[in-house]
Design brief:
Four Helix Bundle (Hemerythrin (Met), subunit A), mainly alpha, 4 helices, single chain
Length: about 140
């Protein structure tokens, strides 16, 4: 069972929404691999992807926030920084032990929690701000 992107998750900016959809696709790949008993192999690739993804995606969002004088920029950036730190710790764990079932579970929990809380709450607030600013 995967996670589904819906219009309800859209923040209203095509670039950000496309990047979020790509994240959903990648996490679905990981979940499918877990269901097929191949989560350990896929989690390494997912962590590599996330390392690149967060740099690009967070830079995109943060630049937009600075450019539009988003009042919650520092709070939003702090959430990004915390995710990067968690991802870094996860990557270190994979480098040390090569990945295991615990790593798969922690990765799933980290990313799905991020999707549920950050996109639905924090990113949606930024999307609302962007929409109001355009009007």
């Amino acid at each position: 069972m995967g996670i589904q992107w819906t219009a309800m998750l859209a923040v209203g900016d095509p670039t950000i929404d496309k990047q979020h959809q790509e994240l959903f696709d990648r996490i679905n790949r990981l979940l499918e691999a877990c269901n097929a008993g191949k989560g350990i192999e896929e989690v390494k690739e997912t962590i590599r992807f996330l390392g690149d993804y967060v740099v690009t995606h967070f830079q995109t969002e943060e630049k937009m926030m600075r450019d539009t004088n988003y009042p919650d920029y520092l709070k939003h950036k702090a959430a990004h920084d915390q995710f990067v730190e968690s991802l870094s710790e996860l990557n270190e764990s994979v480098q040390q032990d090569g990945g295991n079932v615990k790593t798969v579970v922690v990765t799933n929990r980290l990313v799905i929690s991020w999707l549920n809380t950050h996109i639905m709450n924090v990113d949606k607030q930024f999307g609302k701000f962007l929409k109001e600013k355009q009007q």
